[in-house]
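Morning F.,

Quick status update on the modeling queue. The single chain you submitted on Monday has been processed. Sequence for confirmation:
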Amino acid sequence: MLRCGLLGKKLGHSYSPAIHSRLADYRYELFEKSEEELEAFLQSGCFDGLNVTIPYKKAVLPYCDEISDTVRAIGSVNTIVRRADGTLYGDNTDAAGFSYMIRESGITVDGAKALVLGSGGASLTVCHVLRQLGAKSVTVISRSGKDNYENLHCHADADIIVNTTPVGMYPNNGQAPLSLKAFPKCRGVLDVVYNPARTALCLEAEALGIPCAGGLSMLVAQAKRSAEQFIGAPIADEKVDAIRKELAASMQNIVLIGMPGSGKSSIGAALSVMLGRPLIDADEAFTQRAGMPPSEYLPRYGEPAFRDLECEVLAELGKRSGCILATGGGCILREENYASLHQNGQIFWIKRELANLPRDGRPLSQGADLAAMYETRKPRYHRFADFVIENSSSIEAAAKQIADAL
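C-alpha cells below.
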C-alpha cells in the first residue's frame, strides 16, 4: 500500500487524513518535522507521496528533481510524488483547489479588479489563478509596501476580495483583516480559511448580500488533485462535493435556540445519543464561568450584566466544531451572538406552544407575561434561525426533524 502524508512543522489537528481516506486506498499520515530533520526525511525514501504545508512549501523546492509548470509560475510546492526511479516530482495542487473554489462560488473573475490580502505562499497561488482566469488587475495588500492596510481607500473600487491571511482562523475567530463597507463595488468575497466555516469576513459579506465562500472546497479539491498524483489515476470531480458536504456536516455545530422551556436541552440530549456528538449546555458553561447558575446571577447582578457575560461564553463555545449547543432562551437579544453561533453552526429554532412552557427554575419566565416576551423575541428567533423545528409531539420526533434537516 502507498504511504502518503502531510509534511509540516507543527500540524496539530488536520482534516487532511479524513479527506484522503475518502479519496483512495493508501495510508495517509502526519509528518511533523523540524528544519533540521527536513533534508534527511525527504531523502529517506520512506514515503510515496506528500502534501506540504507551512513553512516548507518553498524549502522543499531544492529537493525536487522535476517540477511542474505551475510550480515554476508560483514558486512553491505543496505536493511531492516519489517516482519509480526514486526521483521527486513537485507540483502545486493549491492552484487547482482555488480554481475549483471559484467555480463553485459562482463568482466571476474575468475582467474583475481583485484585491488579495496577504503576501505569503497562498497569496502567490491565488494571484496566479486570478490572472489565469482573466482578472483585469490583481493587487496584493500586505502590512508594508506600496499597497497596504493604511491606504485601502485607493482600492475602494475593488470587485473581488480574497483573504489568504490567517486572520479570523481558529482559535482567533471573529477577527477580520478589513471591513467590506469600505468597498461599495465588491461583488465577491473568497476566504481560504476553512475553520471556522464562516469567518468574520464571510459573515460580513453575508450580511451585506455579497456572494462569498470559505476555504473548505479548496482544501478538498486540492487534496483530490494530490491524490490523483499519488495513485496515477483520475478521480471523479463529484467526490469533491460529496466529501465537502460530509465534512461540513460533521464540522458544523447544531445550535438550538428557542423560548425558555421549549425543550432545547432535552432535544439536545436526544440528538447527542442519535448522532454521537457531544452536547454543550450554554447555561452550564455560564455557571462554570460565573461560579453560579443564571438563576442566582440574574437577581444579584441584573440582566444587562448577565447578557454581557453570556456573550463572552457563547463567543468561546461558538469556536468549537461538531457539537450540539443548547443555548439560553434570550441569547438572541444580542446581535453579536449571531456571528458567534453561526460561524460554525446551523441554527435550529425550537418552537413549542406557550401554554406548554414550564417556568420553574427559569428566573426570566417566572411571573413574566410569556405572550409579550414571545412577541418581543419572535423577530429575533426568525433572524437567527436557519431551520424551524416544531416540538409538538415528542422529544425524539423533534430530534429526528433536526437530523433529517442536516
